[in-house]
Design brief:
It is a single chain. The protein contains 14 helices and four strands. By secondary structure, the chain is mainly alpha-helical. A hairpin with a 2-residue loop joins strand 2 and strand 3. Helix 4 packs antiparallel against helix 5, helix 5 packs antiparallel against helix 11 and helix 12 packs across helix 13. It is globular. The chain starts with 5 loop residues before the first helix and ends with a helix.
């Protein structure tokens, strides 16, 4: 039996680590975790952990879905407003029409899937950049949220979910808590971890995952080898819409009130979390796990700043530095990964 040089084995492990897009986010998360663990005592308490995991959860669900779309070479600027739209649809049907909450949730899911399919269809049918198409959807949904809510309730919010039929059971599924060591953790954390695990499996273990990478790398080349480019892109937009429905459902059942102007600006946080997690703006490279870690960095930093009693304005500075740093790191890892694969 031929002995294997330890240096060769070590180099092989290093090379395998280098080609993983989430390695930069993992290192960044470790730095942020250690920093706030030292700066503030509350960060590592059970209550502190529950707080920054809760902050990361809904952002993480959307970041993972947006990461899949970005790997496929597209963007969805309507994702943030869509979380508010689905919450409002659920709330209006449940409180104003009088439907059972579960039926209202189903109708809002159908609405979300319809908007996602429309976004995808317009992108593949017209050839317009998804940035432009979803910007139009963003504005349209924003107007619908305000206009319909004001028309139905004579205000910019819908409330009264707690008294709707089916609220208790739906609230248990989407907005309940569970205890660990006497500390309450939000079930949204479980949804986040489950969604990230499912997306990660889909991306690296299935044919559809291969299609996503192929479409994002080069749509013409993917089409030439038989990849259904149009179907893949439409399904990715529908996945983003489904994630927005999930987040909207969590929010409306947790807070029991939906505001018509919610969600505006969150789409950029989703994209930034995905980029921090290893996604490239050019498509074809990224990780669902990395996006989940990117959201975790958000949550740790945002709550760490609060725990340290710093002005929250510093979070935006942190965000800008993290974005620029992530882009540089991701490009470096991509180039090294391409050299390793050759």
């Amino acid at each position: 039996m031929t002995a294997v040089d330890e240096r060769v084995a070590q180099n092989h492990l290093v090379q395998r680590a280098v080609v993983r897009p989430e390695i930069g986010a993992l290192l960044g998360a470790l730095v942020v975790f250690l920093f706030f663990s030292i700066v503030t005592d509350k960060f590592l308490t059970m209550g502190g952990v529950a707080t920054w995991l809760d902050d990361s959860a809904t952002l993480g669900i959307m970041a993972v879905a947006v990461a899949l779309l970005m790997i496929g070479g597209e963007f969805d600027l309507s994702a943030g407003v869509m979380t508010a739209s689905t919450a409002l649809v659920t709330a209006i049907f449940a409180t104003q029409v009088g439907l059972n909450v579960w039926l209202a949730l189903l109708l809002s899911l159908i609405f979300a899937l319809g908007v996602g399919a429309l976004n995808g269809w317009l992108v593949v049918r017209t050839g317009l950049p998804s940035f432009i198409v979803t910007l139009g959807t963003f504005l349209a949904l924003q107007g619908l949220n305000l206009g319909v809510t004001r028309l139905v309730t004579n205000s910019v919010q819908v409330s009264g979910m707690r008294s709707a039929d089916g609220y208790e059971s739906a609230g248990f599924v989407f907005a309940s808590t569970f205890d660990i060591g006497g500390t309450s953790f939000r079930i949204s954390i479980i949804w986040w971890l489950g969604f990230a695990a499912l997306a990660g499996y889909l991306l690296v273990r299935t044919k559809f995952g291969n299609w996503i990478f192929a479409v994002g790398g080069s749509a013409p080349s993917a089409r030439a080898v038989g990849v259904p480019v149009a179907r893949t892109k439409i399904l990715l937009f529908m996945t983003t819409a489904t994630a927005a429905w999930l987040v909207g459902s969590i929010n409306i059942l947790r807070y029991t009130t939906a505001q018509a102007n919610e969600g505006i600006g969150l789409e950029f946080q989703y994209i930034i979390a995905a980029v921090i997690g290893g996604c490239l703006l050019t498509g074809g490279f990224g990780s669902a796990l990395g996006a989940a870690i990117g959201a975790l960095i958000f949550g740790m930093a945002r709550q760490g700043i609060v725990f340290a009693n710093w002005n929250s304005d510093w979070f935006m500075l942190f965000l800008g530095i993290m974005l620029l740093g992530a882009v540089l790191v991701n490009n470096t890892f991509r180039r090294r990964a391409e050299r390793v694969r050759r």
